[in-house]
Specification:
Length: 140
């Protein structure tokens, strides 16, 4: 199967993605999903690192990807991102059987929510869907 996430056309040189995860395996899946697309992945392992990235680069960020369970820090971060960057498309990946985490993610601003395990292809296609669903800014 082929990913729907295509390289960016010129003149846009890169897309910026915030990745919040403590899972090295998931980080590698994200890198595989975004390979050869001109994407720069800004990795945050803590809520503090993620908030620093959001505060410094909020207008540059195209997508936020977060991997967490029902822990409060992930939900708090998601809520803070929504308050700071309401239009930032956010994809959350939760543990396989965590319906509570999924519900909390949607309630706090996630646009899409996937369950682990997730493949690189499935993630790439979810990111493509997320970008298509993002509101387009009008050029004045």
């Amino acid at each position: 199967m082929k990913s729907r996430l295509a390289p960016l056309p010129l003149p846009r040189l890169a897309r910026f993605v915030l990745l919040y995860t403590r899972d090295d395996d998931f980080q590698e899946i994200v890198r595989q999903a975004l390979r050869d697309t001109g994407t720069i992945v800004l990795v945050a392992r803590t809520v503090e690192e993620a908030l620093q990235i959001v505060c410094r680069r909020k207008r540059e960020l195209d997508v936020a990807i977060m991997s967490f369970n029902e822990e409060c820090r992930g939900i708090t971060l998601l809520s803070a991102i929504r308050g700071c960057c309401e239009q930032l498309p956010t994809l959350v990946v939760v543990d396989k059987d965590s319906e509570q985490a999924r519900a909390l993610a949607y309630a706090n601003g996630a646009r899409f929510c996937l369950s682990k395990p997730v493949s690189a292809l499935g993630l790439a296609n979810a990111i493509a869907d997320l970008e298509l669903a993002a509101p387009q800014l009008a050029v004045a």
